[in-house]
Each structure stands twice: as C-alpha cells, then as structure tokens.
Structure to design on (286 residues):
C-alpha cells in the first residue's frame, strides 16, 4: 500500500493515513470473540462489513453526514475523512438483549433507563433507548449512564449524538424489518470534522456492530438466532476454552456457517447478490 502510512491495527481493521485530510480503513477477515482475535479468519467477512457500511452511509446522509469518500476495488478498503472521534460508543437498543438484558435482570435498569417490570430476554422495548459505553482500548467496553457520557463529551454534543443515533436506528430498523431482519441493537461512532460538525464514522449497521435477528424466527423469552458472530460465540462457549489468548481454531463448518450468515445479511439488506459486490464494490453506492 505504497500511497499510505500505517497508523495502527484494531481487532478487525487496519488504519492508514493517505494525507492530512484522508484515512484508509481496511477491513480484514479476522474475527474476535470475548475480546480475543481468533486464529481462524472468515473469508470475505471484511468485504461484507465494508460494503454494508457503505450501503448504509449512502442511505443515511439525509440524517447525518458521514466520513465515507470512496470504496476501493478490493471491496474491503474505505477512503474516509479524518475526524476527531468522540470517546464514547453510541449504542441504541430496540430490544432487550446482551449486557442490557443482564443489567435489567439485576436492576430493572439499563444505563440509567428505568424499564417496565416483567420484560423477557429479547423483548422489544417500548421505545429505542440510547445506552452509551466507554471505548475500551483493551477488554470490554463498559456501559455508562447518559450523565457520565455527557461529562465526557459535553452536554450539547451528547444531546446531538443521542438524537442522531436514535434517528439512525429508527430508520435502519424499519428498513431492515421490511427485508426480514430485526436490528435488535447497534452502535455508532461519531467524530467532529474541521468545521465542528458531528459526523458519523467508523462502521455502521454491520453484523459486527449490531445484533441482526431473522424476523421470521423471532421468539422472545431467550436468546435469538442471529446473523452476527453469535454463531462463533456459541461454538466457543461449548468448548473447553478459558476465553483468554490464544483463541481456538474454528472448524470448517463453523467458518462456513459464519460466512453464510454474514453474506445472507448483506444480500437481504442490500438486495444485491454478494458476487455482484465482489465484481464491482461501487454497486452499493447507487
């Protein structure tokens, strides 16, 4: 990548500087679970994440500007604007699952939101709720209250991030449900551009940043089948692994099943054959 300077590596992405205004995000096929990057990759996973995020970026520009400039022909590299990222994850929950369910079961609250009694795991919430989290450089992100998030980013910026996150979730959840997918929850990341505007960055509404459930199999009262990496988590829960580095190798059937779920989510949401994206990544920008 002769035109870029490597800045750092995340669990899934590599980050490069193109110049003073632009960055290059390259999504690998790595997969992590329980905060450990596993030694086995999922073929084309990075292309699914890149293509699906770009698809959403194009369709949500009326709600908020975003960092997308271009997708490169490899289908996994995104040219984007540099932003000063906020130090919080902007999580929106439309259903009671994951850490939200665990918190509710203990306290009837999720990140300071008092919820009705008697909700079951995976129940739809009366309204989507904004449940910010800290960005962990290693280990788990930690759920925080709105007041704590506002102390980190400022009250005005927090209010704006909350409003935009819920608007994005409502739009995407309605769009996805028409295509047979429930977006149970999702996280967004925002940054500030040189003009002081809040801009959507990182990725958005992908199987790595969201819980996608098949709508026709939805049955509240327990965990749901999913299109995200829950399939890998479930496998890792079944084997004798202490959830510390190094992670286990994944067997071929788990690799194939995970890739199939990622690709199916891409095709359902975009309405495009995944092979057409591989041939010409710009199809998601139309």
């Amino acid at each position: 990548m002769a035109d870029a300077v490597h800045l750092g590596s995340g669990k899934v992405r590599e980050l490069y500087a193109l110049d003073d205004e632009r960055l290059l995000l390259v999504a690998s096929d790595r997969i992590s679970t329980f905060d450990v990057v596993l030694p086995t990759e999922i073929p084309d996973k990075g292309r699914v994440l890149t293509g699906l995020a770009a698809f959403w970026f194009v369709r949500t520009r009326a709600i908020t500007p975003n960092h997308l400039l271009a997708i490169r022909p490899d289908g996994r590299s995104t040219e984007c604007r540099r932003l000063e990222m906020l130090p919080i994850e902007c999580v929106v929950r439309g259903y009671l699952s994951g850490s939200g369910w665990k918190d509710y079961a203990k306290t009837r609250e999720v990140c300071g939101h008092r919820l009705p009694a008697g909700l079951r795991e995976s129940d739809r919430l009366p309204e989507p709720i904004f449940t910010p989290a800290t960005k962990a450089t290693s280990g788990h992100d930690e759920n925080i209250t709105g007041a704590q998030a506002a102390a980190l980013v400022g009250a005005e910026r927090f209010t704006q991030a909350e409003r935009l996150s819920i608007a994005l979730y409502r739009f995407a959840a309605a769009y996805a449900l028409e295509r047979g997918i429930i977006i149970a929850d999702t996280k967004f990341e925002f940054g500030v551009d040189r003009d002081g505007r809040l801009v959507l960055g990182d990725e958005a509404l992908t199987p790595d940043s969201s819980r996608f459930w098949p709508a026709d199999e939805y049955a509240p009262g327990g965990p749901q089948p999913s299109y995200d990496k829950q399939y890998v988590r479930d496998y890792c829960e079944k084997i004798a692994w202490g959830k510390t580095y190094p992670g286990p190798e994944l067997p071929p059937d788990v690799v194939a099943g995970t890739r199939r779920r990622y690709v199916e989510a891409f095709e359902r949401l975009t309405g495009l054959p995944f092979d057409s994206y591989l041939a010409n990544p710009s199809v998601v920008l139309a």
